[in-house]
């Protein structure tokens, strides 16, 4: 059903595309006609006078043979053009020539009717066949000549109108026909836009239908799988039904065997399930132990960091105490040296140099201790990270 609808939608889209192409061709033809009419309206008609002169000369030809003479000349032309064919009888030739004259006359009459209709109405196409049927009974000696004269008169009138700058088909002037052409082009463009919109709508609908078809195909595949399962079950039932000729004891034994197999499979599944549960419990306990160990390790790491910090603080405190004691000793030594120098007549330069060196060493020692503590902290951080 959906495939049929999709095919119908595709046919509609193709028909819309064909209509679109037809409208485009119509638009191009109307544009060409409009350009041709604009060129004809701007340029003078050069070939009208010569054609009218030729028609006048053909009217003045009084020595034109009558209809029977035309038929004889036509018969001679046929005999000359087809020398290889077998000669026909006079009756057959006359019948064939009459048929050709009838066809020519009917075509001329239809052309005259068409030109009259175009002169009365606008640019609308009509059938080339005449409304009244022309037969052998209507064939008279002057019919073909009258039809030709009437056609010449209509052509002469049309040529005069074209020479005056009017439309050759409907008798209107070139600007009016140009306006009508522009209106027709505008209508064709509007129809083209409508067809484009309809084509877009049809394309969207076709896309939606395609999605629906895909969904239904998936459902069909699922139904096929279900039907295969049902067919398998049916085959099993058929097999069981075909084995009904066995003895009752054998059937009971077979049923018992099937039941035993089912119970065995059930027990095996339960055992496997119990094993799986035990494994899950073991994995959970191992996971809890791992989490507990991780917590203990984190606590030990924190305690180790605290101990390291205390150790570093104790080392810094001892260094500061040693530096303070060394500073007091140096001050006492400096005071003793000053008293010795006052008693002597002249200061020794070596002793003063040693004193200044000791003072500079004492000044540098706090800086080295601070750098040592700074270097000790990154080491502690690295050990913590380890």
Describe the structure.
With 386 residues, the chain is an all-alpha fold. The protein folds into 2 domains: 2-201, no CATH class; 250-385. Helix content is 84%, strand content 0%. It has 8 helices and no strands. It has helices at residues 2-42, 48-60, 67-81, 90-120, 143-163, 174-242, 248-343, 349-385. Helix 1 (2-42) packs antiparallel against helix 6, helix 4 (90-120) packs parallel to helix 5 and helix 7 packs antiparallel against helix 8. Mean pLDDT is 68; it is low at 44-51, 60-88, 122-132, 166-171, 343-349 and 366-386. Residues 1-24 have a biased composition (Basic and acidic residues). This is Bicaudal D-related-like protein. Residues 178-233, 280-314 form a coiled coil. Keywords: Coiled coil.
Write a concise synopsis of the structure shown:
This protein has 386 residues and is mainly α.
Mean pLDDT: 68
The rounded distance between the terminal residues' Cα atoms is 74 Å
**Which class of secondary structure composition applies to the elements?**
mainly alpha
* Total strand segments: 0
| Tertiary shape | elongated
Pattern of helices and strands: HHHHHHHH
Question: Mind telling me the C-alpha Rg?
Answer: 61 Å
Largest sheet: none
Protein name: Bicaudal D-related-like protein
Biased composition (Low complexity): 365-386
Keywords: Coiled coil
Coiled coil: 178-233, 280-314
Please write out the topology.
Elements (H helix, E strand, L loop, with lengths): L1 H41 L5 H13 L6 H15 L8 H31 L22 H21 L10 H69 L5 H96 L5 H37 L1
Organism: Armadillidium nasatum
Protein name: Bicaudal D-related-like protein
Keywords: Coiled coil
């Amino acid at each position: 059903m959906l495939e049929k609808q999709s095919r119908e939608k595709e046919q509609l889209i193709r028909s819309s595309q064909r209509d679109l192409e037809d409208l485009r061709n119509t638009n191009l033809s109307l544009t060409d006609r409009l350009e041709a009419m604009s060129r004809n309206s701007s340029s003078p008609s050069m070939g009208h006078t010569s054609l009218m002169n030729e028609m006048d000369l053909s009217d003045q030809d009084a020595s034109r043979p009558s209809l029977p003479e035309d038929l004889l000349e036509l018969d001679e032309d046929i005999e000359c053009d087809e020398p290889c064919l077998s000669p026909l009888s006079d009756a057959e030739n006359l019948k064939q020539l009459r048929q050709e004259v009838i066809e020519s006359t009917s075509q001329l009459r239809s052309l005259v009717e068409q030109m009259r209709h175009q002169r009365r109405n606008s640019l609308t196409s009509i059938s080339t066949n005449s409304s009244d049927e022309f037969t052998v009974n209507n064939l008279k000696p002057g019919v073909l000549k009258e039809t030709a004269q009437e056609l010449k008169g209509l052509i002469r009138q049309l040529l005069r109108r074209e020479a005056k700058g009017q439309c050759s088909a409907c008798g209107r002037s070139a600007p009016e026909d140009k306006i009508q052409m522009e209106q027709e082009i505008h209508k064709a463009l509007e129809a083209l836009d409508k067809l484009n919109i309809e084509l877009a709508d049809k394309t969207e609908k076709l896309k939606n239908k395609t999605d629906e078809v895909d969904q239904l195909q998936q459902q069909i595949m699922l139904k096929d799988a279900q039907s295969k399962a049902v067919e398998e079950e049916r085959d099993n039932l058929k097999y069981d039904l075909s084995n009904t000729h066995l003895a009752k004891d054998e059937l009971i034994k077979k049923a018992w065997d099937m039941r035993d197999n089912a119970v065995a499979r059930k027990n095996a599944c339960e055992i496997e399930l119990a094993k799986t549960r035990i494994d899950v419990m073991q994995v959970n306990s191992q996971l809890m132990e791992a989490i507990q160990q991780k917590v203990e390790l984190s606590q030990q790491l924190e305690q180790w960091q605290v101990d390291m910090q205390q150790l570093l603080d104790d080392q810094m405190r001892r260094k500061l105490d040693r530096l303070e004691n060394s500073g007091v000793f140096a001050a006492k030594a400096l005071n003793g040296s000053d008293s010795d120098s006052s008693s002597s007549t002249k200061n020794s330069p070596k002793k003063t140099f040693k004193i200044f060196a000791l003072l500079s060493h004492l000044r540098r020692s706090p800086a080295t201790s601070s750098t040592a503590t700074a270097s000790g902290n990154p080491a502690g951080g690295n050990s913590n990270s380890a």
